[in-house]
Structure formats: C-alpha cells, structure tokens
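User: Assemble these into one structure.

Assistant: Restating your components, then the assembled model:
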Amino acid sequence: MKKILEVKNLTKTFQVNGGFLKKGKNLTAVDNVSFELMEGETLCLVGESGCGKSTLGRSILQIIKPTSGEVLFDGVDLCKLDEKKVRPYRKNLQMIFQDPYASLNPRMTIRELIGAPVRAFKLAASAEEFDKKIREVCSVVGISEDWLDKYPHEFSGGQRQRIVIARALILNPKFIVCDEPVSALDVSIRSQVLNLMKDLQAQFRFSYLFVSHDLSVVNYIGDRIAVMYLGEFVELADKRELFRNPLHPYTQALLSAIPVADVTYKRERNYLEGEVPSPVDPPSGCKFRTRCKYAADICRQQKPQFVMVSEEHYAACHMQHCV
Amino acid sequence: MGERVLEVSNLTTVFHTKKGTFPAVYGIDFTLDAGETLAIVGESGCGKSVTSLSVMHLLPDRIGEVAAGSSVKFKGTEISGYSNKQMSKLRGDEISMVFQDSLTSLNPTMTVMEQMVEPFMVHRGMKRREAEKSAVEMLRKVGIPNPEIRARQYPHQFSGGMRQRVIIAMALSCNPSVLICDEPTTALDVTIQAQILKMIYDLKKEMNTAVILITHDMGVVAETADRVLVMYGGQGVEQADCETLFTNPLHPYTQGLLASIPKIDDDTRLSTIEGMVPGLGNMPAGCHFCDRCPYCTERCREENPPMYQVEGREVRCFRYEEKDERRTV
Amino acid sequence: MKRSNKKNSAYFHDAVERFMHHKLAVAGMAVVIVEILLLIILPMVMELEPNAITPAINMAPDKTHLLGTDTYGRDTFSRLIYGGRTSLKIGFFSVLVQAAIGIPLGIIAGYYGKWAEVIIMRLADMFQSIPSMCLNIVLVSVLSPSAETLILVIGVMGWPAFVRLLYAKVLSIKEKEYVEAARTTGTGNLVIMLKYILPNAISPALVAFTFGIPSAILTESALSFLGLGIQIPEASWGNMLNAAQSVAIISTKPWLWIPAGMCIFITLISVNLFGDGLRDALDPKTKIG
C-alpha cells in the first residue's frame, strides 16, 4: 500500500486571553502528534470535546496553520508553504464538516455549491463541462438533478450532508478530513450517510481522517483508531486490536462509558472520575494522571513515551504492566 | 412497581403555523409508575419533546395547543385543564423537568445558590437560611465537590457536566414524583454522560422518583430504561419493556432503527431505513411509516393502524392484527 | 458562462418574487417610484418657476399657487418639486458614497483582521470621535457649498457607520463553516469575500442605507440652517423647512413648511419599508406567503 500522508510532531498552540501588547497563556490544542496514513485507509480520531481532534484535522489541511511539525503530502511539507502555495494541493485535500446546516453558504444554489471547487480551480472550460462534472458527482452521491437550482434551506440534514460530500468529491481528492460528519444526523439517516461514505471510499480509494466522539461509528467506518486526550495521542491501533485489547486506561474508560444499544451486552462499568483538566494548564507528566486510577509517582514526574507496545499498537502509559 | 403517578391518554397536540394547523402529536397513551423509568425514543421531529412539553403545559404560547379530548392524570387528578397558576404550583414541586442545554437553563447573572434556593422557598416555604442549607445538601447529593463554595459561583464557572448536575439538583430539590429528562446528556461527552446517567439512576432509586427519559440514543435507553415508548411521526408505534423491545422488536420502524445503529463489536454493513422522516405538514394518510416500510401494503397507505396489544406489549402495525389480545372485545 | 447567467437570473427572479409578496415593501417602493417620477416629469409638463420672485408674497394656497407663496413671492409648489430633486439627489448619492467606502473597508477589516483591522477600525474611531457637524461646516465652507460638495462631505463623514456594521457581521460570518469549506476547496480570498461573505453580510447595510438617506437629507437641511447647505435661491426640502424658523410662520403660514416636512417624512417611511422588503427578498430563506 502506498503512503499518502505523513504527519510528524505536529503541534498547534493558541494564545488565549492575550490582547494588544499583552501576553496571553498558551493553550496547546495539538501536542506533538505523529502518524502515517495509507491510500484507501480510514484513520479515526476519537476523544472528548476539547481534546484537539478537530484542530488536528484542520491543522493537517492548513486551515489552521500549525505552530510546528510537518505534514508531508506527496513528499512536500505543507506547513512550510504559505496559503497561495498550498492552494494547488487543496484539490487533493478536502473536508466534510459536522454541521450540514452551517457548512453550506445559504445564498448559493446547490449547483454553485457543488461546483465551487471546480470554479476555484478553473477546471471547467465551458458551461457544458461544468454541468457534466456536476451531473457525474451527483449520480455518484445520489443527488437528483432537480435539487440543483434550489437553496440549502430547502433540504434536510441528511440531504445536505450528501451535498457536502458531493462538493468534497467533485475534484477526486486523495484525502478527506471528516469532522464528526454524522453526529448531527438522526439514527436512520446516519446509517445511510455512513454507508454512502464507505461505498465511495471503496470505489475511489481515497483516505479518510475521520474525527468522531462516537466509538461505535468509528468501529463501523474505521481501519485504525487513534485516541486523543488533551491534544496528545494516547493510543493508536487497528480497531479490532484496540477494542479487544485497549492498553491505555483512558481508552478503557471511554470504551466502558459508551452506551450500547443491546440489553444483552454485559460489562463491568469503569467510571471515570472528575473532568478533563483545562488545556491551558495541563497536569505535569502524564496528562491523564489526574483521572487515572493507576497513577503513580512516575506519572507525575515523567511524560510517558508514545511507543509501539505490540505490532502496530502504540500507547503512551507508564503503567502498562498493571493495566 | 409502585403507585401510578402519571396516566396520559389520547394526548393530541396541534401546532398552529403560518401554513395552517397540524397535529404534532397524535393521541399518545402511556402510564408511569413510581420508581419506574420510561424512555420515549424517536428521531428529531417525532414529537417526543412536544409530548413532554404538553404534559408540563410548557408549549409555546399561541403556537402549540393541547387538543380537546386529551387527558393527563397526575396521581388520579386530571391536570390537562389546569390553569397556569395551578400548573406552576405543580411544576418544580411534584413534576420537574431537565432540559438538554444546561447553559441556557441557568440564569447567567445569578449565582447557583440564588437559583437553587428558589424551589425550596417557593414550594416548601422555607426561610432563606434553611433553603441554603438544603440547597448545599442537594448539590452534595448530585456529586458537586465543595458545594458550599461552588454554590456561590456563577453558572459559567461550571463545566457542562457540572452545570447539568446543578440542573438535576434543582429539579430534584422538592423530591418530585415525576422527573422528565429531555435529552439530559446529549450535549455531554461519553465519560461525563456515564457519570450523569448513573447519578440519575442512583437518585431515582433513593427517592423513588418516576423518570421519563426523552432521548434519541438507543444506547442510553438500553442501559437505563425499564419501559420504552418508540415514537414516529407524532405517534407511539411500539411500547414494551426494555428487554423485550431490544431482543424482539415488532414494529418495522423499531426493527429498522435498531438495525441501523453501528455496533461496537461488529462492522458488517449497516442496514438503513430508506427515505426521510415526513414533515409536520405532509404526514401520509395511512400509517405514518408506510413510505419507508419494507412491508407496506395497500391498506397501510389508506388506513392508520391502531395500537394492538400483543403479548403484553403494544404495537401499531397491521401485521400484528391477528394477534391482538383485545380483538374479541 | 451561460449557466452562470441562468443561475443569477434564477436567484434574481426568486428575489423579485419574494419582494413582491412583501406588501408594505411594494407600497414603499411604489411611493418612492411615484415620487421620483413626479419630480422628473412635473417640471417638464408644468410651468414651474421655483426662483421667480413675484409681488404676490405670503399668499395662501389657491388656483395659481397650489401651495401658496413664500415671503419673496416664490411659488412653494415649484420650490417643493425642485427642492425634492436636490434633496433626493443629495440623500441618495451621499449614502452611496458612504457605502462605497464603508462596505469594502468593513469587509476587509473583518476578514483579514490584524493590521487591516487596526488601521481601518481606528480610522473609523477617529472619524466618529470628531463632531461631524463641525467638520461638515469646516469642509463645506472650505470647498464652497454646492450639491456635489455636500454629497462628498456627508459621504466621507458617514462611512464609519457602514464599516462598523459590516465589520461586526463579517466577524461572525467568517467563523461559519461554509467559509472554512470554501477555503478548503481552494477558493481565493477575493471570491470568498464577494460570494460568501458579502451576500450574507449585506442585509444590515441595506437597511442602514435606507435609514441613511433621510438622515443625509436632514444633515443637508441642518447645514442649510447655518447657510452652508444648498444656497438660496436654489431650493431643497431642508432649506424650505428652515424657512419656518419663527413661531409666527409655524402658526400662521403652514403651507410654507408642512409640504416639505411631509415630503421628508413620506420619503423616510417608504424608503425604510422598501429597505426592509429588500433585506427579506435577498434572503433565500424567506418563505413566500
């Protein structure tokens, strides 16, 4: 398999409470994250709100400029390029957003919305060609042609998400960041969209970085799963391995906290105490130690390394032997 | 189960919109016993929230209206005809409600204490000092650390999970018989959701409160409910105890819904329910689910099935007409 | 780009349809149109001599002088028509100047932030902190009063209002996901500003525009009051209103000020209604019916 994207030591720090001539505090939203993504693969990022999973997705696409680190796409470090030079790469890097209500410009028709990337890259020489491209993508995504002259508000959430997907696909990208694409949708609509996304990937072989807080969705769509906590990767593994053999105490807690729609599913509940600490002032050493029942002195003093524990299974925890 | 606290029958709510008057809830029936948790599940627009707002007399003025012939009995007393004044005596005292959005349910300009003491002073006639003591006690019960100090703070100083705890503390402060939770954990993270659901469960047991849990999350239902009412298109389509519903769903909608949820230990292809939820104004004439139902017949399109009693549960589908236990009646 | 034309005309067609369903707005527009037509046509078909001084002074309305005459014996009706031309011209074009400066600057300040924001917004602060009337007076007297000068001065002094409106709106719009989506699809900054931000930010500016017109008309009349507006003998509604400075005129010669006052009032109301309708019409979310 071909490697399509490589992220090395990516870090994004925001300044908060700063102002004119006033130095604010640093909020590290993404902290030294590295991973690789293969062609046709889906890597899922899971974590609770504020863990930096959306920021990571946006930093990779350079919508938010990362503070340091590298994003290698086609052998080129996107972080080193300014916005003008990144633009040609955007043909291959697309994004699907969480809120299908907010991600479509209400003043544009569906035709113009789906065709916006074509216009941006001037890929249609004539009106006929523009129309042909739109018709092609619509048939792939399941959009009927009489939608095209309407406006976004005339459609339901699931239909809008189809439009967003069509817009992301029209340029035949190699890599798509999906930021919670189904969490705003109803259950019966969600499965339609998830199936569509899976089918499209099988057909076109692009890679997804799929950001979600819902582990059951992630299990359905993903190949590998990365668990994030306060901006860091705490665990990364193949999904079967991760669900069967979670190594990090946070992953275990997450897994045990998801409500499962199955009355026969029995398990020991592992309640996580307390809440996520403020990312402005994270705990020393291991960031998870304040909520971890295995925490020991070493967790306070030393930051655990993100290391390969078994084959293609990475975790960052000092106490793996007890977990 | 305990004493019957709530009995809703033939509850119909209409909405007056610019385009005309449409029913949002069509003749809902359910009962609730002390100490029981009833989950009302359904997708957005199915009328689950409207149902609870109708019971509470909290429908938006001049837009929503409970139709004549609806009956809501609280501990045997008909309350659907209650005036606003009578209702506000009941609300917060005997029946209270918790909403999804904890930020807008609390007044940002008042400290938590000022808001907490209100139900004690209004419904219990307590003096300020006494009320403050009870408020702190209540906050401790819902698991807020250092309640004496935290109570003097403003809502924005609390995290989302903590705010939801405060709201639940307020709702439970007068030891209500019925607690209605409208998507209480939807805005929260899973680990916090697990904490809150456990807390509601523990308090319910301790205080023998009956809980109506309104949610779209079948996972939450499976883990907390005793009985489940599934709603679709403003109607109850199936009602059963939790275990039966999940192991043997009868209504095609319930079956489709359960099959379209991604599983945590299985990634085989999800089945879907094709089509969309019909809007308020264009409900099908027959069964509300007929356009999306794989078993739809000519009759389903023309005639709306009644609720059939099958093996101690209720289901609104012609496929179970034969088995209806009330048939002879 | 045939398709694009078709799309634009569809949008325009929808907007017209939505506008037509807004009855008050249509009425407002009708009044404005009738008013403009009257101001254009009447001088062609009637013999109007706004500046002719006749011995018939201070006459009450009668057949020859529909609205009477003023203290110099000039026909009030003629002056009302010619004054209306001047006032509407000043009102419309000075707000146009304000918007033409303010809207682009507001979008740039909001969209780019940083230095663009600091420079533009502080400049706007400066302009707004100077009592505009004083500066108006100075500028008009330096540049010598005429309709064009007034348009320029009122226009240049009034732009910060538009900057502020647009700036605030753009700040919220640029955080919307659809703007982010446009950036991920590789859309350039100019297109984003024109197609994504401007259409979604323009409605408060349209309303401000319609409010600005009567306000500019009144500014002109205030300057007239100080002798710096439209110079006598040329008429404007403003300087006609100012003729009614004494209690005697207000109580005994109502024909001298009521028509001009009514005209300003009617213009204000109908332009505002028109603006309201326009705002709703340009929003595809507005339901017809």
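Chain B touches chain C through two residues (CB under 8 Å).
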